[in-house]
Amino acid sequence: MKTETQARVEAAASDDAHRFGKICRDEIRLIAGLGVEGDAHLGVTVQHLSRKAKDPDAANLRQVHLIHGELLDELAAKGFAVAPGELGENITTRGVALLDLPEGTILSLGAEASVRVTGLRNPCVQIDRLQKGLMAATLDRAPDGSLIRKAGVMAVVVTGGIVRPGDAVGITPPPGVPRPLPVV
User: Fold this and answer.
1) What topology is assigned to 2-172 in CATH?
2) Sign of the Cα pseudo-torsion (118, 47, 37, 22, in order)
3) Is the pTM of this model over 0.85?
4) CB-count burial class (<10 Å; 0-12, 13-18, 19+) for 157
5) What is the pLDDT averaged over residues 97-106?
6) From CA 168, how far away is CA 6, in angstroms rounded?
7) Are 63 and 116 in contact, with CB atoms under 8 Å apart?
8) N or C: which end of the chain has fewer CB within 10 A?
9) Average per-residue pLDDT for the chain
10) pLDDT of 74-92, one tens digit each?
11) Which of 96, 106, 98 shows the shortest CA–CA distance to 151?
């Protein structure tokens, strides 16, 4: 396992209802194969309401939502005031290039917990309900014209445990040829 010396959990959040933002907590508990204890998105099958309506038996590849704190800094530089948890993330990291991780990367969070990164979060119009223009600020274009989604990554819980702000984040790349993150 590779541990970045400055990679850490900046904030941890959960919410038991399907609201857009989540409430920052002193700690959250990850449950293997399910997600964040007490969170509305906890489950083996998909829990996001729009996705559940389409296919209620689909695997929940979005058990834990992580956003890099550097995105919040970038948004602040563009005039948006966004605090940890407000974009619906469970874990805000600092010092981890989440968007650059290959699919299947294992992130260890604190002393016990670990998650496997499944893909990119696709920003939705709910972001603009928080602040007008915010969704566009979480998107960019690559030199080839392809869309860059910056609203974080999704993961499934591999090993349960407590996650707290200040916890170290370890990064273990997947074996084999790295695959770019799909949108999940």
Assistant:
1) M1 Pyruvate Kinase; Domain 3 (2.40.33)
2) positive
3) yes
4) buried
5) 98
6) 8
7) no
8) N
9) 94
10) 999 999 999 999 999 999 9
11) 98
- Between the alpha carbon of residue 29 and those of residues 34, 75, 93, 110, 122, the distances in Å are 11, 28, 16, 11, 25
Residue pair 20/154 in contact (Cβ under 8 Å)? The answer is: no
- pLDDT-derived band at 48 (thresholds 50, 70, 90) equals confident
- Name the residue ranges covered by the structural domains of the chain: 2-172
* pLDDT above 90 (res 124): no
Task: Read off the tokens for 120.
Answer: 């990119």
Residue 105 to residues 66, 78, 159, 178: CA-CA distances in angstroms?
13, 30, 14, 9
CB 139 within 8 A of CB 148: yes
| Residue 159, number of CB atoms within 10 A of its CB | 16
